[in-house]
Amino acid sequence: MGSIEIDRLTHRSIRLGDVLLRSTPPPAAPSARSHLAPPAAPAPDGFDLLPVTLPLGGKLPATLEGHVDDTGYTLHLTGTVISSQLLELGNAVPQLGEGLRELLDKIAPAAPDSTTPSPGPSPEPSGEPDHVLTSVPIHIDITATRAWGSPQIWRETPPSAPSRHRRK
What we know:
Blueprint: E1 2-7, E2 12-16, E3 21-23, E4 46-54, E5 62-69, E6 72-81, H1 83-92, H2 94-97, H3 100-107, E7 138-147, E8 153-156
Antiparallel strand pairs: 1-2, 3-4, 4-5, 5-6, 6-7, 7-8
């Protein structure tokens, strides 16, 4: 177990679950009976980040997992978080934070900014989101992908297709 310092001034940190990497297992070799199957391309060398728990303000910790290889990486983050705590983690670990605010601006619930009085005409659009990231926990299921040499892109993770069970 370890921790990540997310505020250098106050030394505030979040505790991490165990951080484990394992080398990606090679694909299964084709069976000897399968003479028609073309040879598979060699899998890139890589590592899997096994699920790590991150206490980010939800009732239960969020989970981060991923894969890194010679083409790039993928990170998957799911759970309940407080947006500001997730952004603090993203600031402490820039590789995680790149592009995160833009996605949270799209998916965080809209909430009025209680510090801005609203009498009078509405302000000119500034290109900034028209809401603030609140301290209300939200559920996220997001994935970041990055090909080496390209920007990181965070997206909402599409739901898995329902599996069909066959009866025997």
